[in-house]
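[job 4471] stage=fold_predict status=RUNNING
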Amino acid sequence: MTLIGPSIHITGDISGDEDVIIQGRLVGSLVLREHALVIERGARVDADVRGARVSVHGELNGAATATARVELGPTCSVAGNLSATQVVVADGARFNGHIDMGQRTIAARLASYNAARSA
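[job 4471] inference complete, writing structure tokens
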């Protein structure tokens, strides 16, 4: 597990094969293969994020794509589209975007993204 603490500000693209917890700030993109991303309360992420599970309790400005589940907690603010087979939006969550729960669409997006990264 990787922790990006509250005093850390990262600008750039991140990819990895382990769970990530963000308490600080990220500008760019983040891709986790088959792992979880947690954006904690007080964190700010200006990026498109991808992973097996994405849980947002802070601020996300960008798209979130998950192979399994996207969860928006009661303290979150999200401006961007969500793609996952399961989406949970808690009472109090602020969300502005579209939700796509079609498995074919999600699989196609992930395959296209992975093909582009390996080229």
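[job 4471] summary: Residues 103-118 form the longest helix (16 residues).
[job 4471] exit 0
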